[in-house]
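Why do we care about 3D structure at all? Because function follows from shape, and shape follows, mostly, from sequence. That is the central idea of this module. The next example makes it concrete: a single protein chain, its amino acid sequence, and then its structure expressed as tokens.
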Amino acid sequence: MKGLLVLVEMLLKNWLRSRTGVFFSFLFPAMLLLIFGTVFGGEQQVSYTLEVQNLDRQPDGEPTALSKVFIDLLNQSVFNVKEIDPGIDAQEYMTRGAGFQSRGSGFIAVDIKIPTAQPLAS
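And the structure:
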């Protein structure tokens, strides 16, 4: 046991004599922590505008409960949801310059269809 303690003591003294060893063990990680913490840290809120056209309607013209919940969940995330009137043609709306193309970042059309539940056969 005494031999192990002597060996650890010698290795520790040798490590402390080496300036590069101390630098890369303590100072370099601290510098990286400060640099990356400054660059990537902070309380920045990220949000994206998402234009949604809800075509899932009941016979009376009101949106269904499931589509309302889905849009509300999107709105609670990082998306700022802007609802588009269901009577407007979405392709024309986007090419007219009111959507993504006016920002020069392209055009993405996403069609999410949620099938209705069918009752299970008994």
